[in-house]
Write a structure and sequence with these properties.
With 222 residues, the chain is mainly alpha-helical. It contains ten helices and no strands. The longest helix is centred in the N-terminal third of the chain and has 34 residues.
């Protein structure tokens, strides 16, 4: 049913999704906290930039990333290495493309807390860092879990961005969405059906998991 090349593609896609989700949480949680709590005048401009991939065509984002990470690009000059058509390049592109799907749910979770919890933490003389880890993160956990699930699933299903900056190199950049496209182009309908069915099952599982998180959160509030 699954040949070695297909298994390699699935494992590469899972690896990309796992690494990207980790990076998204490391970057997204502090960014969501700043967007939720900051009074800076430019924070909504930053919020728009974060949300831009939701409406921006993936090929447009992939095109500009290709320029930025190319031999003469600013990112290449900064890190001293060209990233297109590498796994690391896919991680950069996937992180930027999935950022709003992680940041926005976490930001909403932080904003829904109100001030009562912070006032209680202040009366117990908790410093801001302690309050963040002992109050904010536990209360925002449903939003963090939702963001992690969305980020993981969104990375699994990416096509335009990974095609632009990664191409279709087996074992390096050929992820599930690219493999399905290649199978359709070569008229290998059976293999395309297998991988497409796996993606369909994953999508259902993601939505189901999100519903479970929401239900559990609502029951905890009662």
């Amino acid at each position: 049913m699954f040949d070695i090349a297909m298994i390699e593609t699935i494992l590469l896609t899972l690896r990309l999704a796992a690494v990207t989700t980790f990076v998204l949480l490391v970057v997204g949680i502090p960014l969501a906290w700043w967007l939720a709590r900051s009074k800076a005048w430019g924070k909504e401009f930053v919020a728009v930039l974060v949300s831009l991939p939701i409406v921006l065509p993936p090929t447009v984002l992939g095109f500009y990333l290709l320029i930025a990470m190319g031999p003469d690009g600013p990112l290449t000059a900064l890190i001293g290495r060209s990233l297109p058509f590498t796994f690391e390049g896919l991680v950069v592109g996937s992180t930027l493309y999935s950022l709003p799907f992680v940041v926005n749910p976490i930001r909403n979770a932080f904003e829904s807390m109100g001030e009562r919890h912070w006032e209680a933490a202040a009366t117990l003389r908790a410093n801001p860092l302690d309050a963040f880890f002992t109050v904010a993160l536990p209360l925002a956990m449903p939003g963090i879990l939702t963001g992690a699930i969305l980020g993981f699933a969104h990375t699994m299903g990416e096509f335009g961005v990974v095609l632009m900056i990664g191409g279709s190199i087996p074992g390096e950049t050929k992820v599930l969405s690219i493999a399905i496209f290649d199978f359709v182009e070569s008229l290998e309908w059976g293999k395309a059906h297998i991988l497409a069915g796996a993606m369909l099952a994953l999508s259902f599982a993601v939505i189901f998991a999100m519903r479970l998180v929401e239900t559990r959160f609502k029951s905890d509030l009662r």
